[in-house]
User: Fold this.
Amino acid sequence: MLIWRGKGILVLLIVAVAFAISILFVAFLKSQLAIGLTPRTQPLLGIAVAALIAAGLNFWFARYLDDPSKQRTLIDPKTNQAYVFKDGSSLMFIPVRYWTYILLAFALLNLVGLIAQLGQN
Assistant:
């Protein structure tokens, strides 16, 4: 079950776009630069590149959502207390800005796996 709030569903779109870009990038590396990617290392490289691209795109998306000019401040006339309304977009109960760090960690894990596979060859 997928749960999102606000614009949080766009994180999945960002990941899908990043995977499409990484497929093209890894195919370019394999064909044009003649890098010897084995069937074991090619998916690890593709996932790592996709996660890095998705983390970068999500970083800019989260900055767009957290822009202070988009926040509204309302003042209660009785108590003169200020209330700030911010964007609360999230995916799977995790705010959009934290998905950048999750994607970076996923990319690093895949890079470690890639290095381990290259070390075995």
In short: The longest strand covers residues 72-75. The longest helix spans residues 41-65. The CA atoms of residues 30 and 37 lie 7 Å apart.
